[in-house]
């Protein structure tokens, strides 16, 4: 059997495996380690001197090997550009005021409405290829810029079509059902929400276009009762939930997410103690989005309180054309460490094992026997170097299910 096996040896195999974690080494690193791959899965991980001598081994030398990164929050399926809005915001313009005036999400809605399936697919594919170079092997991708049924379904079908491509990162599709009111619905908010719940959600189910359902809950976005109506119906259809909560104001989104058993609440710049306690109780993950708070010049979420309460911390890119015009999960990790006082170990776990768990995926996010052979060979000498703000891809090789999606040996 060993003929179908192959091994990589490197100075640091950073497993992110809970079974290997210790208080001094939460990432479970194996110095001078090896990882054996077979049939798209990891067959063995351990010290190089214990490697089966019959397995052919590629020696990567002074390099770090980690699980493939998992980006648990992206809006990568978009068209157009918001550079005009960005410049206005950098000069002091307010994101929510711009949205109220018909810009923001609604301006991307216009661009997505005008884009064909093929155009949108080409944009998404190019972005997925670039995020693979950055070390991402699994990516959550939301809709939420189609807003009207025809264009939401187009966005979701584009996302689904990329999910079958073996040479791209794996995709977890999310129906971001309530993101903004399209201009067509300005005078009938309740009717819009009802149609999303009663008509669009069943279509998304029927076509099996999403695993998760999401909503943007905030003072100037959708409200708790709207989120509850959507969330309860979504759960009754078998969807799992992840919710935009507390980006600007604490309106009780964390409590609602906990009540509905959401897998994650994302943003959390504004969340109170009761919300944090509820998240812990429900086992809900906090997805931190430091690129968004960087462009919005916001104070960080209460990371110390979340940590103290035992809420699992995930870090994601939030890649979108408005608040996080970046595709880089490694940049998000760097900003989480710099601006949020997240430790490098927390950041890396929050972009691997915990990110995968927040997406309901237990077959990846850690280097251990039986997991998918999703891994990154970094052109860096230590895992702490991954969270430095390089601004360039620092991967040598990125494997998904044992096959290269970026780089060569
Ligand atoms: N705030 C809600 N949604 C996105 C931003 C969308 C946009 O501005 O286009 C976010 O996660 O930051
Ligand atoms: Zn988002």
Automatic annotation (TrEMBL):
Pathway per the UniProt entry: Amino-acid degradation; L-histidine degradation into L-glutamate; N-formimidoyl-L-glutamate from L-histidine: step 3/3
Keyword Cytoplasm applies: yes
Organism for this UniProt entry: Pendulispora rubella
Key words, A-Z: Cytoplasm, Histidine metabolism, Hydrolase, Iron, Metal-binding, Zinc
Gene: hutI
Protein name per the record: Imidazolonepropionase
UniProt family annotation: Belongs to the metallo-dependent hydrolases superfamily. HutI family.
The protein's role, per its UniProt record: Catalyzes the hydrolytic cleavage of the carbon-nitrogen bond in imidazolone-5-propanoate to yield N-formimidoyl-L-glutamate. It is the third step in the universal histidine degradation pathway.
Sites where the protein binds Fe(3+): 73, 75, 244, 318
Any one GO molecular function term: imidazolonepropionase activity
Reaction(s) the record says it catalyses: 4-imidazolone-5-propanoate + H2O = N-formimidoyl-L-glutamate
Amidohydrolase-related domain sequence ranges: 64-387
């Amino acid at each position: 059997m060993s003929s179908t096996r192959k091994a990589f040896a490197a100075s640091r195999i950073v497993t992110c495996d809970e079974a290997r974690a210790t208080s001094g080494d939460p990432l479970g690193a194996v110095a001078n380690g090896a990882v054996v791959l077979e049939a798209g899965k990891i067959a063995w991980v351990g010290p190089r001197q214990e490697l089966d001598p019959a397995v052919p081994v590629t020696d990567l030398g002074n390099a770090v090997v980690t699980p493939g990164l998992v980006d648990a929050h992206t809006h990568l399926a978009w068209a157009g550009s918001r550079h005009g809005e960005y410049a206005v915001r950098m000069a002091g313009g307010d994101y929510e005021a711009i949205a109220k005036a018909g810009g923001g999400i609604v301006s991307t809605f216009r661009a997505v409405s005008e884009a064909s399936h093929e155009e949108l697919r080409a944009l998404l594919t190019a972005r997925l290829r670039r995020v693979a170079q950055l070390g991402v092997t699994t990516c959550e991708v939301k809709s939420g810029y189609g807003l009207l049924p025809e264009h939401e379904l187009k966005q979701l079908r584009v996302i689904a079509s990329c999910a079958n491509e073996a040479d791209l990162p794996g995709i977890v599709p999310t129906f971001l059902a309530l993101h903004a009111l399209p201009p067509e619905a300005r005078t009938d908010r309740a009717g819009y929400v009802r149609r999303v719940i009663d008509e669009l959600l069943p279509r998304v189910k029927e076509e099996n276009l999403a695993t998760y359902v999401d909503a943007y809950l905030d003072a100037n976005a959708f409200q708790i009762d709207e989120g509850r109506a959507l969330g309860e119906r979504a759960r009754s259809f078998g969807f799992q939930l992840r919710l935009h909560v507390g980006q600007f104001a604490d309106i009780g989104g964390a409590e609602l997410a906990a009540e509905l058993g959401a897998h994650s609440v994302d943003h959390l710049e504004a969340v109170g103690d009761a919300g944090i306690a509820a998240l812990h109780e429900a086992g809900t993950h906090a997805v931190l989005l430091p690129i968004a708070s960087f462009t919005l010049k916001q104070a960080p979420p209460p990371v110390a309180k979340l940590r103290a309460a035992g809420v699992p911390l995930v870090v994601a890119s939030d890649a979108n054309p408005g608040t996080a015009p970046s595709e880089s999960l490694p940049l998000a990790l760097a900003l989480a460490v710099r601006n949020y006082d997240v430790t490098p170990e927390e950041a890396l776990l929050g972009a691997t094992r915990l990110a995968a768990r927040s997406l309901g995926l237990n077959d990846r996010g850690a280097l251990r026997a039986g997991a998918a052979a999703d891994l990154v060979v970094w052109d860096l000498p230590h895992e702490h170097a991954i969270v430095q703000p390089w601004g360039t891809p620092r991967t040598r090789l990125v494997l998904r299910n044992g096959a290269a999606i970026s780089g060569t040996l």
